[in-house]
Amino acid sequence: MKAIIIGGGIGGLSAAIALKRCGMATEVYEAVKEIKPVGAAISIWPNGVKCLNWLGMKDSLQQLGGPMEYMAYYEHLRGQTMTRFSLDPLIQSVGERPYPVARAELQDMLIDAYRREEIHFGKRVMSIEEFDDGVRATFEDGQIAEGDLLIAADGTHSVIRPYVLGHQTERRYAGYVNWNGLVEIDESIAPANQWTTFVGEGKRVSLMPVAGNRFYFFFDVPLPKGLAEDRATVKTDLSRYFSGWAAPVQKLIAAINPETTNRIEIHDIEPFMQLVRGRVALLGDAGHSTTPDIGQGGCAAMEDAVVLAIAVQTNSLGVKDALLRYQEKRAYRVKDLVLKARKRCDVTHGKDMAVTHSWYEELKSETGERVLSGMRETIMGGPLE
């Protein structure tokens, strides 16, 4: 049995590795000639970590992950501590720790685990069609690939999604812009073992440690979409949006490298329940494009990969039946994650400032119990719990 995987990002490679682990032949086709990850880093929460462990990358992941032991929120103007607590109760209750990692390094880890020379780069899919006992993908260069099933892991702009759904989908602007990148750790900005977040005015500035003595940082600002801003103006833009914020925020802005800082307008897609049509299945952002507000986009794609492989391996009523089992196990889970992220997005980014100010007040009395309980609930919904 052979699977054609369209997309060589986190989801596509996780699926390819998972299916290969279960004894399937796989072919991976990636549209770009060289993968350049969108975003500087990613927080892999314990549900995602367990999926990568299951895929055989436990030791490799630990080499990439930063030592994130605490979580803290600070008031934006004077930098006063609103709350700070250990992540250890979460780790002990779910049986694994989170790992913030640089996206490029995670991508390389997945590529190496699959085998770089087996990935077909520069292959942009033009059309797909099913026949009696298989599925065929035709690429823009005229190449044709055939297999028993096809996994569409071609991202939020998926060209295969309309085939599965029977209609186009619209991306929804979430209302804010995110700047992100990597800087050398400076403990006068934030502790090296802590997820640090400054909040105020519906904005946030956050730092997470990754391997290599680096912080992953991001700035969020509610803004109209389509502003004429890019890397050339990043320091000026951030200095303006965060004028008057605490000294560590100003120091971070001064430290960033505009050439390696990304600016992303954040979108999601209204969740849908159909992830499968015949021998074709959606996976990752192609099936559930979400905002990054609960850190579950990449983790959900890893979960998809594990569930898909188990479904194909353990069900004997044919490919179509196995993919329906995958859909049944994933549709409600990923819908829930998209909507949870959207709800958190609105609270964090001042969609209703009265609600956001109430959240700020709640943080001042937060012991960690409420925050960790919400994380635990999300994590424990994964397939390897």
TrEMBL record:
UniProt pathway: Purine metabolism; urate degradation
EC number(s) from the headed UniProt entry: 1.14.13.113
GO BP, sorted A to Z: purine nucleobase metabolic process; urate catabolic process
Matching Pfam families: FAD_binding_3
Reaction catalysis annotation: urate + NADH + O2 + H(+) = 5-hydroxyisourate + NAD(+) + H2O
Keyword terms of this UniProt record: FAD, Flavoprotein, Monooxygenase, NAD, Oxidoreductase, Purine metabolism
InterPro entries in UniProt: FAD-bd, FAD-dep_Monooxygenase_BioMet, FAD/NAD-bd_sf, HpxO
ATP-binding listed as a keyword: no
Cofactor(s) this protein requires: FAD
Ranges for domain FAD-binding: 2-338
Molecular function in Gene Ontology: FAD binding; FAD-dependent urate hydroxylase activity; urate oxidase activity
Family statement drawn from the similarity comment of this UniProt entry: Belongs to the FAD-dependent urate hydroxylase family.
Name by which UniProt lists this protein: FAD-dependent urate hydroxylase
Organism (species): Dryocola boscaweniae
Gene this protein is translated from: hpxO
